[in-house]
Amino acid sequence: MRCRFAALCVFIVLPAVSAAPAPDPYVILDIGPPAKGESDIVHRQTEINCLTHPHGMISRAWREAEAHNLQSIPPEDKRPLDWLAKRVVVKQDGDGNCLRITFHGGTRAEQVVILNALARVYVRLYKEDLAGWEESIRRTQRTDADDHLARLRQVRVVRWAK
Length: 162
Description:
Blueprint: H1 2-18, E1 26-30, H2 40-52, H3 57-62, H4 65-68, H5 80-87, E2 88-92, E3 98-103, H6 108-140, H7 146-153, E4 156-159
Antiparallel strand pairs: 1-3, 1-4, 2-3
């Protein structure tokens, strides 16, 4: 009798445990170390502002094809960038140079689209910046930019949203 009761409890509890909601999607970006003379706090806050300002990375991510077709943005909303900016949350992940980005709005699939678009735009912008610096160094034979180039090379997506 005890075995039947224990087995019954296991069958009742297992479906409840497996029905736990999936965690919200998120992206982790490694923003690299701060520039020479800049503190970690200022560097992190600058990057957070770039990622959350309606006319920063969000406007670039909005131009991506998949992001531009989101169904969750209210049709009467004349300012979709502000709607998106209000729903992007960026926090430090751990105690290094990583930022965790979440998006609270729309369906899970739309959240993944927005988060991955933000990550792509962020990395693309830094790669363009890196290419510009490398070209400038080739033309001018500058030797003082090694630290800046090394810092830019460290910017990457640690985890894409799923």
